[in-house]
Amino acid sequence: MKKKITMQFIADSLGLSRNTVSKVLNGYPGVSNETKEKVIKKAIELNYKYFSNTDIEKFNGKETGNIALLTANMPTSSHYGTSFLNGFEGKIRSEGYNLSYYIIREAEINALLLPNSFQTSKIDGIICIELFDKNYIELINKLKIPTIFADTSADVFYPELVADIILMENEHNVYGITKKLIDKGYTNIGFVGDYNHCRSFYERWIGFNHALLDSNLQLNLSYCIIDDDKFFSSDWIGDQLDRMKSLPSAFFCANDFIAINVLSALKERNIKVPDDIVICGFDDSIESKIVEPSLTTVHIFSNEMGVIAAETILSRIKNPSRPPQIIHVKTEPIFRNSTGNIL
């Protein structure tokens, strides 16, 4: 259970009395500026919600900053983005910034409209997550507000963006796992996922193909499910499996959500994993650990990614003319039962 943040908790964290913390947070005199600054910084860091002291909004000599989160799909609890945003928000709050949430509807994306409540004059920076429409990305870029994209469109050319981009390292570990499968004899191998969905999926597709090339194997599209489908549900995947003349010996899936739906579709057809076919995913989601069989995947250091993204956007706000960065944060392969004994 998440611990409730109270004045006493803040006081204990700093080795101060509750009375001193109360004076600071309620705007009473009699506390040194040094102590006041420590209390305010710790309260912001811990996301303490009951401020009445206007000094908090003037922390570090400025009004509280505001960073806008723009997303077309708010991450669910199993999505890497949830932990990413926890790390991101914790870091920016410790520096005196708030995070405002804006869900971009499909109609707004198609019409290239910003949300009605979005006021550019009150925004210091922008973070975009799960927002992959190229034209909408270009719209955000034209606002000339410091921006970082957590992943981006597969067809956005980096020089076009005057913004920072943060991605998990996608290509290397997909290459490594695919190569290990091939070396263990799984030479009929397919990819599942729309590689044009986002930049991360595209980089995973590149890693997959690179492993085939280095193993002198040709890509067999009849083993792949790469159609443009928004949902990749188990029923839809099952229909694609039924159309295959023969199944591959292995599937590499663009993420765990897709991999688990592939696993479900195979189970409905009495195809055993890993005995008949092996499966890999990507994300190391909560579900990947508890599904049967447990899923070989790639772990994303998502909370740490969020902190790095926060540090990057805060630096961009301070120095808007700094050259844009493309940041890849290391990932880690996790081998579980869905690939049998390939180590």
Q: Figure out the total of helices.
A: 12
User: Nearest-angstrom radius of gyration?
Assistant: 24 Å
The share of residues in helices is 25-40%
Distance between the termini: 37 Å
Quaternary arrangement of the chains shown? single chain
Beta-strand percentage?
5-15%
Largest sheet: 6 strands, parallel
Structural class: alpha/beta
Poorly predicted sequence stretches spanning 5 or more consecutive residues: 52-57
The counted number of beta strands is 11
- Average pLDDT for all residues: 90
Strand ordering within the main sheet: 2-1-3-4-5-10
Order of helices and strands: HHHEHEHEHEEHEHHEHEHEHEE
What is the overall silhouette?
elongated
Could you characterize what this model shows?
38% of the residues lie in helices and 15% in strands. With 343 residues, it is of the alpha/beta class. Helix 1 packs across helix 2 (18-25), helix 3 packs antiparallel against helix 4 (80-94) and helix 9 (234-243) crosses helix 10 (256-268). The longest helix has 17 residues, at 302-318. It is elongated. The two termini are 37 Å apart. Residues 52-57 have low confidence and may be disordered.
